[in-house]
Amino acid sequence: MWTQEIQCRGNESQIRMCPASEKHSCSHDDHQALQCADVMHVRLVNGNSPCAGRVEVYHRGQWGTVCVYNWDTPAAAVVCRELDCGEPVDALGFAHFGQGSGPIWMSVLTCSGTESTLKNCGSAGWGKHACTHNHDAGVICSGHKRSRLADGSNLCSGRLEILHVQTWMSVCDTVFDQQDAEVVCRELDCGAPVQVLGAAAFDKGDAQMWTREIQCGGNESHISFCSLSSLEHNCTTDNTVGLICSGYTDLKLVNGPDSCSGRVELQFLKEWGTVCDACWDMRAASVLCRQLNCGFLSGSS
Fold this sequence. Notes:
Mac-2 Binding Protein; 3 domains; 19 strands; globular; 301 residues; mainly beta
């Protein structure tokens, strides 16, 4: 009987990698049971994220790739949904995420986009293809973040880095503006931009520099949907751009007699909490009433 407490974080690949703490008194009447879900039949490899990479499917005890022939947005949508990775951002081919090895399991896919798994799509048949691994298909799903903020005080502030061809790059402060910041904060679920900072405000970092001008309209959901100018700027690591997002993504009123009255709670970095009354005034209260479509402020306590 194993009696030490197993303390896994949840992201370990094997149970032996989890630390163990003090022992407990147990008998065989106290044994632990477990039921696991079915094995996942599709995965994305080499994309620096579970939601981007080369598409591989599991068949006959072996992982293999998918040929790019007929690889399209509906097929990519099936993969993104199967992996709980949102919507397809880009369906890519010709070994964009590197060449796989082993069998090429699927080719000439015919997906409607509504299938629950890629295996339910039509194809030429398992292992039937006229492809090489130069033709391996890939996908980027919306659950894959193409931007991040580094060396800040929390996940919603720091030096901006964007992912380009599997490499994280710092961004030159002269190619980035307030509209671009709106998109990055939205992509990271970090609310609205509070401040765009230049001159390596969050340290220089050691990444390569992105110097092409980013041209977002401000309403895009992901930085990858923004267009790029052909114009490049001369930048050094002294010019990396930093960004502070509000981190506040939602507000609500709870424990009141209706939806327009109650205790103010605020969502910060995906966690709900209350608001200190010393941080709250009539102007903030008026904004909240308007945001919640609750008319004008009638009282605040």
